[in-house]
Amino acid sequence: PDDEKALCNCAVGHLLSEQLDDARIYAEKVLAKNSANGQAYSIIVRVNGNRDTLENLIASVPEPYRKLPDVAFAFSQIALEKNELSIARKWLEIASENKTHWQPP
Q1: Could you tell me if 70 and 100 are in contact, meaning their C-beta atoms sit under 8 angstroms apart?
Q2: What is the end-to-end Cα distance of the chain in Å, rounded?
Q3: In terms of Cα–Cα distance, which of 36, 82, 22 is closest to 55?
Q4: pLDDT at 105 (0 to 100)
Q5: Rounded Cα–Cα distance for residues 9 and 88 (Å)
Q6: What's the CATH number where 90 sits?
Q7: Residues 1-32 pLDDT 10s
Q8: Number of domains in the chain
Q9: Which of 27, 49, 85, 96 is deepest in the core (most CB within 10 A)?
Q10: How much is the pTM?
Q11: Domain assignment of residue 29, given as a range
Q12: Whether 71 contacts 89, CB under 8 Å
């Protein structure tokens, strides 16, 4: 597929099937088309969640896109999995606050 939404759906399918390398590849294809796609960033964060520190995961997403609801929620989920509850709450609040108010840079 070449359509951004179709590529994202492929990435999600691979993520759910635990085919993490393929999920990352499709998410990166999405970002090559649209660098503001929060779903693609969130997939990459989830792919790398067990491979990296939360700090590095956050740093891997360009600052303007960290507060995208999908991305902030992914950070929250990874923080929860790492038992960093205060950080999980912080990112969940950011995701909730920006659900309808986030504007692209």
Answers
A1: no
A2: 28
A3: 82
A4: 53
A5: 26
A6: 1.25.40.10
A7: 789 999 999 999 999 999 999 999 999 999 99
A8: 1
A9: 27
A10: 0.88
A11: 4-97
A12: no
